[in-house]
């Protein structure tokens, strides 16, 4: 088991947002967490990355507990996140954003092959590498957010709403890249509101509702389940 | 005409000290969104430590100044770790009040150790005056402006080019995203406080050589003016702090030269009021950038 989350409980002050969520991600899998706005998907990813502290529960990454580690330690273990809303550094250039993605590799690392592989996946970023990231289009910013997360050579990549606000063509492109990353051996935990697209790439899925897992199983089984389709996929 | 130029150069002299101190305010604000009102007192501590090393330990000026700067850098880090870090997730006002508390603590601690009586600051360096055309600029003025400008260039290069400097910019723009890159924010914040306090200490030494009387409350006025300089230029923006510092110094010097010495502080604080009314984000300030 690459990542396992057991009975996770997270609160914002007095308000509990996550009520005992358990799930796991196996090496090589694409697992998706789907659910409506406010179901707690981003909260779970933030907690895994160490940006939020759980009130209770255990998070294991490659058989070591990580729920009390500081965020930068968790990144160094090979668990990266491309956060919701992209969160690229707008005042820095595209190149500097990618450098920040490789921050954990230290000063002396030879990164030229890493840049090459990111630029192969995202040719537009290469054209715009000297530009300030804030001047990129929405789609390009999302490419940069994913490319930046790849610079640290993660073993598990968490993507929070990578398709948000993008045109259908760009959504297709993002999901093509997700498949490609998976084929390249990166394990992926995908949080999406676009459940249909998420289920089309995922091996397994968990459906969240107000901080609880209400359904889990093979992604393909969800697509065929009429009740699930109506309730969660809006189809 | 010559008087005007001399007044402007005098303004740049004191302005470069303000600029050095203002950088500390603005860098700390950029990283932790906190106005560190104890920053001005670092100037005072720097002056006292350097004074002690010069008089009691009889060290040469350069070594005493260097040690004073290092001490202040360590003090800046210690203050952040002890007083501000535990409040990082507390309401902003709690940290703000704490910075004022630290300010009083430092003033009173120095008063206990050294007595409240002002002391002369011994200057043992003689720098020959520099002549540019028919103008004679005092060596001290020349060196002060030169040191300040060189430090600003070095700081800008550090923040633009080095890995730590880029981490500082990333943290300043988006703390959580920087953490997701693997940046240790505690280290970054400490480095920021160390650099800010070290620059203030340099400012302190330059200030004390120009106004060679030091007292436990000496940091208040230059500290406040540097803070205004940082706001004037745009708080959180480093070139803004430099610009604001120089503008404040020149405004002060011209008021002293052409209007009245007593009014100079009033003019300086008047600038703050005007800035807050006209462009609260400062001269180089940006409006909060919109997400595309």
General description of the model:
The complex is a heterodimer of chains A (235) and B (292). Chain A is an alpha/beta fold and 235 residues long. Chain A is built from 10 helices and 10 strands. Chain A has helices at 41-48, 71-76, 94-101, 112-121, 123-127, 138-151, 168-183, 195-201, 219-224, 226-232, and strands at 3-12, 15-25, 30-34, 56-61, 64-65, 79-82, 156-160, 187-192, 204-209, 212-218. Chain A starts with a strand and ends with a helix. Chain A is globular, with a radius of gyration of 17 Å. A 6-stranded mixed sheet of chain A has the order 6-7-8-3-9-10, sandwiched between helices. The mean pLDDT of chain A is 92. Chain A has 2 domains: 1-78 and 157-235, Rossmann fold (3-Layer(aba) Sandwich), CATH 3.40.50.300; 86-153, no CATH class. The mean pLDDT of chain B is 92. The longest helix of chain B has 31 residues, at 2-32. In chain B, strand 2 (130-132) and strand 3 (135-137) form a beta hairpin. Chain B contains 11 helices and 4 strands. By secondary structure, chain B is mainly α. In chain B, 73% of the residues lie in helices and 3% in strands. The radius of gyration of chain B is 19 Å and the shape is globular. Chain B has one domain: ABC transporter involved in vitamin B12 uptake, BtuC (Orthogonal Bundle), CATH 1.10.3470. Chains A and B meet through helix 2, helix 3 and helix 6 of A and helix 6 and helix 7 of B.
